[in-house]
Amino acid sequence: MLDVAAVAEILIARFGFNAALRDALVLLTALHDLGKVNDQFRKMLRGQPYQSNSHWCVTEVLLNAHDDVLAGRLGSKRLRREPLYAAVAGHHGQPSKWTGNDDHVLSVTGAEAVRDARAVIAAFLDLWPVASLEAVSREEALALSWWLPGLVSAADWVGSNPDWFPAEGSVMPLAQYLTRARAKAGVAVQKAGLAGVGPKADRLFGFDLRPMQSACAEISLPDGPMLAVIEDETGAGKTEAALILAQRMLCAGKGRGLFVALPTTATSDAMFNRLKHEGVIGRLFDAPPMLTLAHGKAGLSDEFRDLIDAQENAPEDPSCTAWLADGRRKALLGDVGVGTIDQALLAALPTKFHTLRHFALSSKILIVDEVHELGEPYIAEVLERLLHLHRQAGGSAILLTATLPLALRKKLMATYGGGEDDPAYPALAIAGGAARRDLPQETGARGPVRVERLPDAGAVISLLTDLARGGAACVWVRNAVDDAIAAVQALRSAGIEADLLHARFALTDRKRIEQATLSRFGKTGQGRAGRVLVGTQILESSLDLDFDVMVSDLAPMAGLIQRAGRLWRHMAQRPAVARPVPAPVLHVLSPDPAQVTDGQWLMRVLDKGAYTYPQGLQWRTAKHLFSVGQIVAPSGLRGLIETVHGPEAADVPSPLEKADREAEGKAMAHKSHAWQNRIDLSKSYREGSGDGRDADYPTRLGEASRTLALAQIRDGRVTPWGGSWPMAEVSARKSRLDALPLPDQAHPAIAAAKKDWPDWRRDSVTICPVADDGTICDGLSYSAGFGLRFA
Fold this sequence. Notes:
Layout lengths: L1 H12 L5 H12 L8 H7 L9 H11 L1 H8 L3 H12 L12 H8 L1 H17 L10 H22 L14 H19 L18 H8 L8 E5 L6 H14 L6 E5 L2 H13 L2 H5 L6 E4 L7 H6 L14 H4 L2 H4 L4 E5 H5 L8 H9 L2 E4 L8 H16 L3 E6 L4 H8 L13 E4 L4 E2 L12 E6 L2 H13 L4 E4 L3 H13 L3 E5 L5 H15 L9 E5 L13 E5 L3 H8 L20 E5 L13 H4 L8 H14 L1 E2 L5 H9 L11 H21 L7 H4 L16 E10 L2 E4 L8 E5 H5 L9 H7 L4 H6 E5 L5 E3 L2 E4 L3 E4 L1
Helix pairs in contact: 1-2, 1-9, 1-10, 4-6, 4-7, 6-9, 9-19, 11-12, 20-29, 27-28
GO biological process, one term: defense response to virus
GO molecular function: ATP binding; endonuclease activity; hydrolase activity; metal ion binding; RNA binding; RNA helicase activity
Keywords: Antiviral defense, ATP-binding, Endonuclease, Helicase, Hydrolase, Metal-binding, Nuclease, Nucleotide-binding
């Protein structure tokens, strides 16, 4: 218990609590395992028959039973102490399951243990004589009840490591032991990668700053926690602007690290690689920081694996300890974390150890990129609660967006006390504080993007064939994987070199294809002339690509603007005179919005891609975009977004009214689902949290998916596709897979391959051997070139 308290003293020091409150929280942390002073726990250790009696539940009961001892030193009201007792007892990732029957718990614990627990409390009080809760308000006690379990969990995971805290062989006074524990804790925290780094005010970038970047370098910062919203067009350097602002916030004491949250695994990997290699992280801090990657596939990133324990060979560069890399939750404790937004949103959902995520993020400036992609009602509601939680703990945040509707911007800014409707764009605004709305609106070197409608897939194939033969680098962004596969087949039949990228590739193949795509169509890509890339929505933001010609299936306005950001993107590398086409044009595959005769208006042209987005939203986008005929960035973006996504959006034609009402109902249901799921901050941790698995409280809603692990059979053995089981995984819609006769998991070869898997993985992942001709089962096949295909 004192080992953990010694670690907590180091971890809590950076949060700026006054000495009385700091020591009170450390004292409570020291008492987190008081419930192990317990007759049943002693019997368990001795191998004797014992009655189940979870020690963390007993901790809460013993603290309440001896509240008179604690009250004599800590002061304050009992209703303010009790939430904190429950908080330290909840250090195993969930509130204790205490039923309120103290007498029964104490009886099972044993009279001797109850007396000894009182003695322990009295002895520990002497170790932190200035500890006091007297100045803590009811609201502060509630807020601390959500934060404190995370501190205790982090300290417990370090302080319970026997390599760093080996058992002492001699008996000594507690004060003497605590002195020794403090010395060990300093070393342990360093080895875990939690020692922390300080901010540095060096110039971050050697180039001349763009207007938004200059605004971030100049805008006045308010006192206390703050929320900034950066709105600018795709490719305007918002990431660099956010880092400039974050550096100033770090130097102002508004955080001691960063967590950069992105919408997808691919965008997280790309950002991680940027921060690792561009040197900006080293210029933010006075010592090399711990840099972590946090998402479900982080262990498969070569870039991240190369960083683990790299300080031994390159102590001047960012690195990551093996302790931090061991799990997504721990990764959030690093000085600088990069990961999916899901890892942050889980802090606001009642999942196991969500308080550890909250504690880890509370010391960070939370940078959320591509916020417009989080506008789906369920995600938006959870994000709002996350920002409330972050501010409650004194955390600050920066939101980055190109196409955020004003209503959602106002809602999110209100979490920090100020939301506005000002339509200026580009804009930099601090909630309840300063704003910059005088930023230049001149269109860049690319100029306006003309918009033209294509009536059917045949017209698209004809256009791309002609332009590719003329040397243009082309892309067709499709809404559905099946449609993307069909498009590639049609283009190849026409003699065009067409590449394919979508989400239904095994991870090993997807990574290979993504790298090849970047090498060909990236900023410095080679061999792009005359080639066509066909991809799905993952092209909207995941990769930094540049095309001469773009075709897109009709999508909501925000998505089309994002997709158009990959058109004539890098004008310094490829100026207009070097392009094989005279001007940037966004060709949109869409039916005529003026000719809506029935509810099948969109389906006749887009096939499966017609079901990806709400049809009413699609129609509003088509009607307005084709009437305007161009995308002018940045000055015209606000008008495009608000006309379609804002409250004054046009009514749909009568044949689409039913689908539009159903979409509105679905959105309200998703919002209601979020309200039910997210944690209740009006209550204490014990009353407002839960003990669910991450899967029980999703960060996003959508059709359920099912994970397959592709395999090959060699000499009667099942081996993973691509060499490892994680790299062999691919997911698809559960409803489609459930209708197929997938391989029997009881087959001896498959069962043998799964025998060492953990139970959750064995139950949730289906091994699917792929025959030499690509067949998996009737109706399903796989190839490295096309991915997973349904008949």
